[in-house]
Design goal:
Elements: H1 5-13, E1 19-29, H2 36-43, E2 49-58, H3 66-74, E3 82-89, H4 98-113, E4 121-123
Antiparallel strand pairs: 1-2, 1-3, 3-4
């Protein structure tokens, strides 16, 4: 079971083909027309809408530790609350290129915007898997 970014990196190294990770960093936001109950829930860390603010693709070797990824994200100046991760398998011993990752990454961003999150691993700012129940 994958419960952290490090678990994901370790699992990727066991795959028969090299992997490329797709990352979509999101900010939790509350709509302007939120009710008092929705605002209270949001203050407790519940509810709200996820807005993608950064997306990037990397091989596990480019970001072997979550703190490397988090530091790169901080350099953008964009604040975020969680990151969703997906993996792409390579072919013939080669990881997918960044060019090959662009369409799946774009589809991932749109999927998250529509609230379809089940295919992605959500991680908090410490790199630990979180439940979105």
């Amino acid at each position: 079971m994958i419960s952290s970014y490090q678990d994901l990196v370790q699992a990727s190294r066991k795959e028969p083909e090299p992997q490329r990770f797709l990352f979509v960093f999101c900010k939790a936001e509350l709509p302007d027309d939120a009710s008092a109950a929705e605002r209270a829930a949001f203050e407790r860390g519940e509810g709200g809408a996820l807005t993608p603010v950064i997306c990037v693709d990397k091989t596990p070797y480019e970001v072997p530790y979550f703190d490397v990824l988090a530091e790169e994200s901080r350099a953008t100046g964009q604040d975020w609350d969680m990151v969703f991760v997906a993996a792409m398998s390579g072919r013939g011993g080669h990881a997918p290129s960044s060019d090959e990752a662009q369409q799946p990454l774009t589809m991932m961003v749109e999927s998250i915007r529509m609230g379809h999150l089940g295919n992605y691993l959500p991680l908090n700012k410490a790199g630990h898997a979180i439940s979105l129940d």
